[in-house]
Amino acid sequence: MAPAVRQDLLPVHEGPRLILYYQTHHDSLGNVISVLPLITKSTGVTHVIVAAIHINNGPGNITLNDDPPDAAKFNTLWQEVAWLQGSGIKVMGMLGGAAHGSFLRLSGDDSSFEAYYRPLEEVVRRHRLDGLDLSIEEEIPVASVQRLLTRLRLDFGPSFILSLAPVATALIPGLPHLSGFSYFELETWCQSLVTSTPEAPPTAPIISFYSAITYCNWGDASNPFLYASLIAQGWDPSRIVLGLITNPANGAGHVHLPRMKTVLAAVRAAFPNFGGVMGWEYFNAGLEREGTNEPWEWAQELGSVIRTRSTGVQPSIDARLRNPAQAWGGQLQTRWKGEDLDTLMALGVDMAEAIQAMDAADGNVDLAASFLFDS
């Protein structure tokens, strides 16, 4: 029998995304941590990203975490992936992450690229992944990213989902991040590939979405300023996903569920084409600190806000979020430009702190940001 579906949930292909990373696949006793409750409990999850695929030294030396993707320990995982896909959930693989080297090995000359890329292509095909999420936490040239994206699109076609997971500061000009290239330059290239004719709508961008990581001191998701400030830089809300940490044990920046639901409802009300939410990671999502007993409950709680047809938020908040500096800063006297204050507020500070940092830096937004990072 098919699992019951909540009647108020949006169809899986509509509305904001609800994405979960699935890196820890087994508990401490070796038992599989099942993802099937994501469908049987009607959570509203739209994407699951299996992590983390690593390209190690020597062509063909690919691992899923520490073992080959075809290892027997992953048999149940791949079986459950097929169940998720059968329910309409898109299952992607995450390439890279904190373990460096995967993207450096794909940054060599054409011969070296082919040697390392081909085995990756085979893994994706063998396990019928719906896409790849590129988590680039090492410095590589933008041309290497463009080559990889172009090749993936060529080999897998336009329905194959390609996403990137930059830290949130990478989506604001002039702030430090981890990838070594400009995401604005990458997006300009991405848009240059979009084509349209009078007879056909524009083609979809090669990059489906960016998951903006707010945790581990790269932002603050406890208020709506962060997302609003990213969109103020010109990013399309439908392609910007807010990246959250699901448990304080997984890193700094955890926001408790009641607060997070309020923030997400406000963001969704302000941006009707809100791109969605990503959570790192599934296995301990919400446990212990949120009064939940199972990780799928964390997803279900967020799904009740972003994967239903109504947010329940008063629309009066919309205009304030669309111009956060102007709306909340009007009562504060300052000579600094609103867009500079928005940039600093994306780091998680309030208006008064942003003004104080700009005063100390005499208007140099990069220096002001460094003051806030160092404080």
TrEMBL record:
InterPro entries: GH (IPR017853), Glyco_hydro18_cat (IPR001223), Glycosyl_Hydrlase18_Chitinase (IPR050542), UBA (IPR015940), UBA-like_sf (IPR009060)
GO molecular function, one term: chitinase activity
One Gene Ontology CC term in the entry: extracellular region
GO biological process: carbohydrate metabolic process
Residue span(s) of domain GH18: 16-295
Keywords: Hydrolase
Source domain of life: Eukaryota
Entry keyword Membrane: no
Record-linked PANTHER family: ENDOCHITINASE, III CHITINASE, PUTATIVE (AFU_ORTHOLOGUE AFUA_5G03850)-RELATED
Name this polypeptide is given: Glycoside hydrolase
Source species of the chain: Eremomyces bilateralis CBS 781.70
